[in-house]
Structure formats: structure tokens, C-alpha cells
Amino acid sequence: LKSVGVRARRQARGRASRGAPAACFLPRPRCRARGAMSAMYLDKNAVDNPDELKELEKFKDKDAKKGGHAKARVEDDNWRARTAEGELTLADLKRRQREAMNEEFEESQQKRFKIVNFTSEDSHLAGEKKLFSLYCSICGEHAVASEVDCSKLPRRRTDRAIAIEEAVHFHKKYANFGEKILLRRRNGVEKQFRFYCRQCRQPLGYRPSPPTETAKFSYFFDKALVSEQSAAVAFQK
């Protein structure tokens, strides 16, 4: 402001030397007021009106109660850990370690359980039937499993073979089926599809139809099967 006033006085003197009045070139009072306002706003402690003084007192009272000025929280991403793709931070490692420890703790807990050996003979269900096993009379190989005692079944008159009705009695053969054999009978020719022991190849019985077709009866040769494995010839030596 001082330099502005000096410059104005110099210009006034130059105009006065040329015949113009010096008062016409003096700075206007409005410039002084503008300079005073700019100086007031440059001062951080300057206040324009009483309302601002009241607001300032309110903020001072709040800060005094809190014991100091509250520091504004500024969000900055620089504090976060920056990792490349595939890298792990310390927080990730700690989280994985906690998960592993929890899994080990759960596995270490002893679970109570009870082991029960259950067979078909231990069953008490309604309609449960006992299975009978038949073995090869020579080698003792398991040959037939049936729900009926085959020793009590009827026999054929021609060859004394045990006849089991397939549609009535459940049974399963553990044997190998072989060739078809034709036998001459009084009434004609009989077809037999025989099955043999898996181990010693002894003939165990026959069917009137191949294994892929249904038949009314299956026949077991007389003395080809035994009810106990120890009764086989191989176990009596």
C-alpha cells in the first residue's frame, strides 16, 4: 500500500508540473477501504461481526471440555499393505494359522462310537429268513446259497437229483455253466444245461434251460453237495 501511495504522489507531481491540479490524481478513499478489508481477511484472528465472535467462543468451549483440539481423521491408502498378485500379507498368514489350529482341535476331539458286528443271524426283523449254504462234496468250495434246506426238497425218480423250484425258493448258484447235454429217456430226449464247481470242475447239477432263460426247476446231483465244508473229501485226508 505504501508503494501505491508513493507512485500516486509522483504521478500527481508530474501532472501538476504540466498545469493539472494535484488533488485530482490522489488515490480514492475506496482503495484504502479495500486495502483495509484485505488486510483484515489476511489476519486469521480478525472477525467481521459479533455473530462470528459467538461461534468462535462456542468452539473454544467445546475444545476446552474435550481437553484439546479434535484431530480430524484423514483417510489415506498409504497405510494399507500393498501386495502383488499371489503374495500374502501378515493378516492372511495369521488367519490361515487360526483356521489350521481350529481344524486340528476339532480332529483331536475324541468322538464316541460303538462297533457292533451284525449278521443275518442276529437280525430280528419280521419276515427275515435264514440262509443255508451248500459246498462241493470233493473240494469244499461254496456252491449254493438257498433260503430252504435242500436236503428236505423232493427228488427226481430217474437220477435221484434234488429238485428246487426257482419261482418259489430263492437261491444262488456259485458255479460255471458248461455245455448242453442230450440224454435219452423213455418219453424221448432230455436236454440238460449243466453247471460245474468253480474249483474242481465236478458236475453239481443242471437246468432244462440255459442260464439266460427262466426255468421251472433246477436240479442238484445226488451226493454232489454237502451241508458242511468239513464233510468234503479234501478235508478228510
Layout: helices, strands, pairs:
Blueprint lengths: L1 H16 L11 H14 L7 H17 L23 H19 L23 E5 L5 E5 L15 E4 L5 E3 L2 E10 L2 E9 L6 E5 L9 E4 L4 E2 L11
Antiparallel strand pairs: 1-2, 1-9, 2-4, 3-8, 5-6, 6-7, 7-8
Estimate what percentage of residues fall within beta strands: 15-25%
| SSE order, one letter for each helix or strand | HHHHEEEEEEEEE
DSSP strand count = 9
Global Rg: 58 Å
Largest β sheet strand count, sense and barrel closure: 5 strands, antiparallel
Helix content: 25-40%
Sequence of strands across the biggest β-sheet: 3-8-7-6-5
Mean pLDDT: 76
Q: Could you name the ranges where pLDDT drops below 50 across 5 or more consecutive residues?
A: 22-27
Shape: rod-shaped
Structure characterization notes:
This protein is α+β, with helices and mostly antiparallel strands and 237 residues long. 28% of the residues lie in helices and 20% in strands. It contains four helices and nine strands. The strands form two sheets. The chain has a five-stranded antiparallel beta sheet with strand order 3-8-7-6-5, with no helix packed on it. Strands 4-2-1-9 form a four-stranded antiparallel beta sheet, with no helix packed on it. A hairpin with a 5-residue loop joins strand 1 (132-136) and strand 2 (142-146). It is rod-shaped. Mean pLDDT is 76; it is low at 22-27.
